[in-house]
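User: Some background: our group keeps a shared notebook of sequences we're curious about, and every so often someone picks one and asks for a predicted structure to add to the entry. Today it's my turn. The entry only has the sequence so far, pasted here. Could you supply the structure so I can complete it?
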Amino acid sequence: MISGILNIKKEPGFTSHDVVAKLRGIVHQKKIGHTGTLDPDATGVLPVCLGKATKLCDIIGDWDKTYEAVLLLGRETDTEDTSGQTLKEREVAVTEEEIRDIILSFQGSYDQIPPMYSALKVNGKKLYELAREGKEVERAPRQVRIYDIEILKIALPRVRMRVSCSKGTYIRTLCHDIGAKLRCGGCMEELLRTKVSCFRIEDSHPLEEIQRYVQNGALDKVLIPIDAMFSEQKKIVLEKKEARLAYNGNDFTVKAGTDSIEWQAQEEVRVYDEEQRFIGMYYYDGEKKCFRIRKMFLSQEERKG
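Assistant: Of course. Here's the predicted structure to add to the notebook entry:
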């Protein structure tokens, strides 16, 4: 089984699920998962996890993201982007200075109401399914954080901007909210995701390129190892006795080579055995003075081997 992360460059017209389905056919493996949906018309970085790395899907999905978006002022739609039905059109009678002031005012935390056309569930049903039935339900606002907005170009009625934000932020909704605050309406015309934590657009690969790597037996050139996601954490290599404990997810203490280290409570570490196989992520329990399992990545077959 292939395990690792691929930095996929999603192309327009594909859903995130489409990308996963196509990858399953390319690598001939079922155990694959994506790390967070991108709308079909959106493009850019989509980290995809294979094999044991699927345990990282939720973790990577929680990481901060950066987008380049085009805001179209003067138009409101039911989907909050240009793929939807137009609800209202207005004249864009605002100055560039007003636009800059309003856009930059969204930096920081703000309460965002998720769009009806989204994959969020209410009473077990996805919002976009309800929206397609012509139903609208009340959605509780969620606090999101806009770390930075850089206005790249203003050519009214369009504004191109770069947005760095927290998980759960809908850029479509941000465009809608900016338009509402400017009192002329707005929706998203284009969206490119340029970064998900350490995954960058310049390092991403379209599906056809991944297929060529597979055909040439060179997938390892673009497959990112699981432990690379935790490269900033300290590394512990266990001797056989401690490693046997770790294989089963049990607590362990370490002595040789680490007794001079002052471990911090809840500090996470990468744990390996003597063969340099990545066992998983552990954290230090300050009260019990031992390391406890956070996430296991070594498979049962590897543990037996």
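Suggested note for the entry: The radius of gyration is 23 Å. The mean pLDDT is 89.
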